[in-house]
Design goal:
This protein is of the alpha+beta class and 163 residues long. It starts with a strand and ends with a helix. The chain has a domain of 112 residues: 2-Layer Sandwich (Alpha-D-Glucose-1,6-Bisphosphate, Chain A, domain 4). InterPro entries: ASHA1/2-like_C, START-like_dom_sf.
């Protein structure tokens, strides 16, 4: 399993997940840069993602939805704030009201995310840091199962890289 550590800091309102992949940094970067690969690992296996729009550039947007086993759609969006290919990127991640126009759901928390990919002797250590505006926002996504869902999603990357 690629996920090696999960750490929440309530005072800092952060969730940090660390993972290691048996692939170079450039290969891990491709997973996020290619919408068809991203949708294979964004979301837990039982909630596959569909990436509708994808622009992994500064100021770019990514719109996606995950589909539950019952067929219900859970839309979300990214606003990309920084890109340092292939070493990482930063973005805001939020929930959307619907999968038609992906208008932000302001009742749900938004996180600031920093994804970093570091070479460790031909392999990659990935560090995923999500920071929420409020402690209540962090607690809300923790209660929704973000640790389990994110870990399951990240753990799918090994199979994708090996295929």
């Amino acid at each position: 399993m690629p996920v090696t550590d999960v750490n929440t800091q309530a005072e800092a309102r952060t969730l940090t997940i660390t993972a290691e992949f048996a692939a170079p940094v450039e290969r891990v970067w491709e997973v996020y840069a290619d919408p068809r690969q991203l949708e294979r690992v964004w979301g837990p296996p039982t909630y596959p993602a569909t990436v509708v729009d994808h622009s992994l550039t500064k100021g770019g947007r990514v719109h996606y939805y995950m589909t539950s086993p019952e067929g219900e759609k859970y839309p979300g969006w990214w606003h990309v704030t920084s890109v340092d290919a292939p070493h990482g990127f930063e973005f805001e991640d939020g929930f959307a009201k619907n999968a038609d126009d992906f208008a932000p759901d302001e009742a749900m928390p938004v996180s600031q995310n920093v994804y970093r990919f570091e070479d460790i002797g031909g392999k990659t250590r990935a560090t995923y840091v999500s920071t929420y505006t409020t402690a209540e926002g962090l607690q809300k996504v923790l209660d929704m199962g973000v640790i389990e869902g994110s870990s399951q999603a990240i753990n799918q990357i090994d199979d994708l890289i090996a295929s």
